[in-house]
Amino acid sequence: METLIQIAQLILCLSFLVILHELGHFLPAKFFKTKIEKFYLFFNPWFSLVKKKIGETEYGIGWLPMGGYVKIAGMIDESMDKEQLKQEPQPWEYRSKPAWQRLIIIMGGVIVNFFIAWIIYASLLVNHGDNYVDNSKIKYGISVDSVGTILGLKNGDKILKVDGKAQTKFEQLPLEILFGDNITVERDGKEETFDLSDEGKRDVIKRAGKNFLAAREEVVVDTIIPGFPAEKAGLVKNDQIIAVNGKSTRFFDEFTAAIQLIKNDTVSLTVKRNNEELLIKAKTNEEGKLGFGNQFSVTKDAFVTKEMGIAEAIPAGLSRTISTLTGQIKQFKVIFNTKTEAYKQVSGPLRMFKIFKPEWDWTFFWSFTAMFSIWLAFLNVLPIPGLDGGHAVFILIEMITRKKPTEKTLEVAQTIGVVILLTLMALVFGNDIWHLVTGN
């Protein structure tokens, strides 16, 4: 059932975005009196799941969830339908329209995707406020694991900037670091700037960014696991462990490193309880654990909610949309850097559903939809023949040179674009199938 809920969220997200993107082409085409032959959600090679002709346009749903399309009369597109182009141009055809009208029609989908993200982000800010963990309030700095160490980070570092940009939101640091080239930290009271290693980014990506960076916390007992050594030793909630075998372990990363070396053996804990210091003996289990959950008060204390009205949310939503777009551009740089091996983790429709939560969460759904809308806009604006950006490049060349490309040139470019897109689709689906089969 949980998987079905995730798949349903993905299908709803894709359907919503694809339909609105295609409307971005459809409406200006209609406005400029251009004939629309087909309007499809998803692609329909060989057959359609549903189709119905209304007026001059066939509306339908395809079976391949890789986007959608509107087939505009007189346009060389991915269908490679050349029969109509052999006839004399008609006033209602795309090719007969002025270049500026064709540019508006072709870029309409990208523009709609951008505005969808802006509207969603602004709406979320009005309804929920701007919620984040204030990086400046992370008082003990960060704790990192072995992957964070490879990146060049150390326990206790306070992250100040990534690529020279001050970092306000703590939860955004993993992505900023992944996409960044260099980082500035406060270490032992001094500022240091150093490059982020591609090897470290590779390991972060392999683990989907899990656990390599967290806020540094003191060792304060929260929950006791029944039957484990912590309960038997008499530890209670709010006990603060400040030393292990006489060695100071003020922070949780120091404590776990020390306790991991003492497996299935007795350990002496110095504990603060009600402003008194106690010495408690405990025996670790075979995994070098005592069996308690630690309090995470630093991120809780640093959490900020900034309420916003519509007047504030509109520019803030635009700012978030632009920063998301910037992140997508940076993500491409990481994907095409072979040292990070990020290309191995690219997901298509067969695995993308796992991004969604197993229970229906509208806030997460709309946040992801806004982000994915920007992703679709960015992909479509790429100057690859067959994509909106590829068509736009030829129109801009025509507007600059005052010379229209020949239909043969457009056909060759479109063929190259289709080959590129089909190859990318095969790689993405192949990568999905490989991960699903191997269980990675």
Describe this structure in a few short sentences.
The chain has 440 residues and is an alpha+beta fold.
Describe the structure.
The chain is of the alpha+beta class and 440 residues long. It has 3 domains: 2-127 and 366-438, no CATH class; 132-214 and 296-306, Pdz3 Domain, CATH 2.30.42; 221-295, Roll (Pdz3 Domain). The protein contains 13 helices and 18 strands. The chain has helices at residues 2-31, 99-128, 146-150, 173-179, 198-206, 229-233, 252-259, 297-302, 310-335, 349-352, 362-381, 388-401, 407-438; strands at residues 36-43, 50-54, 57-61, 64-72, 130-133, 142-144, 158-162, 165-166, 182-187, 190-195, 213-215, 221-224, 240-244, 247-248, 266-273, 276-283, 292-294, 303-306. The strands form 6 sheets. A 4-stranded mixed β-sheet has the order 2-3-1-4, with helices on one face. Strands 8-7-9-10 form a 4-stranded antiparallel β-sheet, with helices on one face. It has a 4-stranded antiparallel β-sheet with strand order 14-13-15-16. A hairpin with a 2-residue loop joins strand 7 and strand 8 (165-166). Helix 1 crosses helix 2 (99-128), helix 2 (99-128) crosses helix 12 and helix 4 (173-179) packs across helix 9 (310-335). The longest helix is centred in the C-terminal third of the chain and has 32 residues, at 407-438. The two termini are 22 Å apart.
